[in-house]
Amino acid sequence: MSTSLIYHTQGIQGFQHESFSFSGGCVVQRLKRKNFRCLQCNSRNVSRYQTRRRKIQALPYGQKPTFFELDVHQLYCFTCGKKTSEQLPFLSHPKARLTKAFERTIVELRRDMTISALSDYFKVRWHTIKEIEKRHLQRKYARIPLKSVKVMGIDEIAYGRDEKGKIRFWTIARDLKTGAVLHVDKGKDGDSLKNFLKRLRQSGAKIEVVAMDMAKAYISWVKKNLPGTKIVFDHFHVIKLMNDKIDKERRELAKTLDKQQADQLKNMRYILLRNEENLKPNAQERLEALKAFSEELCELHTMKEELRSIYRTAENELQAALALGDWCEKASVGCSKNMRKMAKTIHSHWEGIIAYWSYGGLTNAAMEGFNNKVKTMIRQAYGLRDLEYMRLKIFDLPKIRQNDGI
Ligand SMILES: [Zn+2]
Hints:
alpha/beta, Nucleotidyltransferase, domain 5, 3 domains, 21% strand, binds zinc ion
């Protein structure tokens, strides 16, 4: 009965039940291999001697943590004369401390439970669960099909600082039609895309459009490596750059103020960067007060809203070019240095900015939503040292709901 039970509940074949014992609140089930075969030639004509005793955590019986205990042997084969070490087929790798069936259950539950919750429930170390998920992600994303990718997005995302206090970045490439993550690597330049380029070439993919921000590194990477591919500076990145300019102006202004005023200004940050229609009435009032306080911030904020309105209303390239042309003219004689700089940037990236209107598929929501997901994950993983695990988690993000924790 117990032997058939371990097959039907724990997925274990070729072993038989010997005994049950209880110790320290755990169930310990002794198992014995039914018969031994040479790993080289499959002959049964082998002699064996025990090398060690192993304890492997299995799916719990009820609420009790459950362990299998069994002896592992060295085998000598009389048929082929080879010496081999006995392998346990119910482990995902020779050093695993949990059965495969248990690991599968953990991976399945991980979709709905945090690592900490799983660790508490199953009495398995946090680190062990993370490693199980990591191996699963490594297998899952070992080969990402690239052949049918046509519209791609390249982006950089900051994820903390290195030992010297420098901000660290990931470069992320995504298929903007399916949302799938295609590549994640350290850094924010062409080098971060080296391996990706190799895979891209092997796949024979024909990339038509790449959406990105206006950073030089990615632009020259596309021009050099993907000739004939159109570069688009999308809505999300243009507005993001505009927000960066506003933030810069705010910080510059803060330096000229006393501490109390500077702190007040710091608290106004989100009011300036948020879309105006999303502000609550009292925030709206504070925004007006802030605008009266600084001519430069007032100008930048008004121009940001005008820029957003161009994206909302222009229906084609021609309308966009006319409206943006007017906008640039106004911005280039602005009172804020940051405003004039923004006008220059738009001018020098004109073609790629206008090209946005030719590609309806590049929706802002998809890019912004994904970036927010990555940021949420980084926040939740604060203090987590395993960068490779975090990198792999990014591949999983399109399938994860926003509020799932680490
Ligand atoms: Zn043999």
